[in-house]
User: Fold these one by one.
Assistant:
Number 1:
Amino acid sequence: MNQVSVLAQNIPVESHAEASLLEVRDFSLRRKKATVLDRITLSLSPGETLGLIGESGAGKSTLAMALIGLLRAPEVEIEGSLRFRGTELTALKEADFRRLRGNKIGLIFQDATAALNPCFTVGKQIAEPLRRHLGLSASACRARAVELMQSVGIPEPRLRLDAYPHELSGGMQQRIMIAIALACNPELLLADEPTSALDVTIQAQIMELILDRVRALNSSAIFVLHDLALGAQVCDRIAVMYAGQIVEEGPSERVLNAPLHPYTQGLKSCVVELGMPTLTPIPGQIPPLDAMPNGCRFAPRCPKAQAICGEQRPETQTRDGRQVACWFID
Ligand SMILES: Nc1ncnc2c1ncn2[C@@H]1O[C@H](COP(=O)(O)OP(=O)(O)OP(=O)(O)O)[C@@H](O)[C@H]1O
Ligand SMILES: [Mg+2]
């Protein structure tokens, strides 16, 4: 049986695909010789949620795009492994990837206005994955689209099926995108800053909605977020990215409350808490891709840096239930 028919039948490809739904091992991605992702390693169990946190340019969206096969060779150079339910994604053909994308792996982008097609009604756009991946008839697609719109809190869904995206508010459009992403009950949801384009007043509502649906489907999810505190609040685990590397990864509560990596500690001091008069930004910025330091990429900004930090990349160590990449954890 080939990989595709195995995926289509919902059977794990290999018997040891048991614990992890997603297994990323030493995954690197280069654009024109610049290493945008540098030996990323992480895993996700079924039903688990992971927050991918880091400042702008850390490579969070690049990793998400690689995971859904929208960034592949020859456009970029890739090394290492991305396994989803035991299937090596880096080896999949585009046609096979199309069977996974929007089906077993759902996607929510930052900006629904850009992601939805202005020329098609929202009903048609929700029906598309149902028709394509599940082979539902036109009438079954419409009935399921109504159910999905209801499940994401769209009032009077029957009346809105034939609306075009511009006829709906930003929050409603985001809900439509969530309905599309979850239409085929994906096992993994990738949500890249799913609420940052929305008004602050409805951000929490939409986040709550996504979490609620993810839990209802018992799906796993990766949330790309800027905010460490929000990530820790909504995710089981946190992976902190800096300049294309994961510097710390572990259970949310520990990463937030007792961060071990100086970068995570810096991010934590940026968290605005009620009653705190000031917040301390981390001085400096992520180095440009063509001028990355050889050793630890955070070294030029790190208050604890010593000579070795600029020379050798720190190996990832297991400490207090976490993976941390730093020469001076203590
Ligand atoms: N299409 C592209 N061509 C060239 N370089 C790119 C492209 N997209 C991203 N990059 C570079 O890759 C690096 C990682 O970018 P990425 O968008 O993945 O970061 P991010 O963590 O998602 O940031 P943000 O929080 O701003 O969304 C950055 O240095 C960025 O400039
Ligand atoms: Mg991004």
Number 2:
Amino acid sequence: MRFRLLLVLMAIDKTRLNQVVQSAGKSLTKQRCVIIETLAANKLPMSAYELRDQIKKITEQNLNISTVYRVLDFWTGLGLIHKIESANRFMVCSDEHHHQFHVIQYCTRCENVTESCELASQVKMEMSHEFRALEIQVIEIQGTCLDCQANTGT
Ligand SMILES: [Zn+2]
Ligand SMILES: [Zn+2]
């Protein structure tokens, strides 16, 4: 039961991917798929190099690092992958509603990252109407997660 739940959490919704990609007038290539799926299966955010190495290990595909960056750019542009600027790492968006704003809480100790849909809607609501924000905005909040807070001093 637990195992099944884990699989569901890790699986990426292909139908949704297809919808987003097609509405942007693009197509879902094999490389685009393998990169977002590998990233989604990883618990922690990954750097482009880690992603490349992981793909090589699992699929034996040898992707050029510039290809990995190009595909990551593609997905960040669509808002389905976020870049954690401070750490130069990437994560799959966990917001299913396709908001303009994405708020991520990044633990600087264990690198665990959570995305808050609720915070994102609040930012949107509180934003000045005189300011027009760009299409996709990622707001990064750095701090310490609950687990790491509990482990302080041990
Ligand atoms: Zn997001
Ligand atoms: Zn932590």
